Amino acid sequence: ITQFTIREIHELGYETLKHPPYSPDLSPTDYQGCCKDYQFFKHFDNFLREKIFRDKGDAVNTLVEFIHSRTPDFYCNGIGTLGKRWRKCIESNGNYFDEINSL
């Protein structure tokens, strides 16, 4: 956010919050803790290898094909832990921690 924007926000009586540091524990797609099989972009990257897109439609169709190629468990395992992971991040007050072993 630019200084101008911050001043305008403050003049309107609003407060700006600090942007939290990136954490794979907060990301629904990058988490590698207890569910090592759920690394969405790693699997998607492997799926895209040697694929060629002639147009936007090819890219969209390939994404849909990838999504359908995964079992429901693939998504449930990663997404199912989001609440616990987010809660752990909140409870740590933004401090780093090793792994979420209690999931």
TrEMBL record:
GO cellular component: a single term: nucleus
Gene Ontology terms: biological process: DNA double-strand break processing; DNA integration; double-strand break repair via nonhomologous end joining; methylation; mitotic DNA integrity checkpoint signaling; replication fork processing
InterPro entries: RNaseH_sf (IPR036397), Transposase-MT_Hybrid (IPR052709)
Keyword Cell membrane on entry: no
Keyword Methyltransferase: yes
Gene3D superfamilies, per database record: Ribonuclease H-like superfamily/Ribonuclease H
MF (Gene Ontology): DNA topoisomerase binding; double-stranded DNA binding; histone H3K36 methyltransferase activity; histone H3K4 methyltransferase activity; single-stranded DNA binding; single-stranded DNA endodeoxyribonuclease activity
Key words of the record: Methyltransferase, Transferase
Origin superkingdom: Eukaryota
PANTHER family linked: HISTONE-LYSINE N-METHYLTRANSFERASE SETMAR (PTHR46060:SF2), MARINER MOS1 TRANSPOSASE-LIKE PROTEIN (PTHR46060)
Name of the protein in question: Histone-lysine N-methyltransferase SETMAR
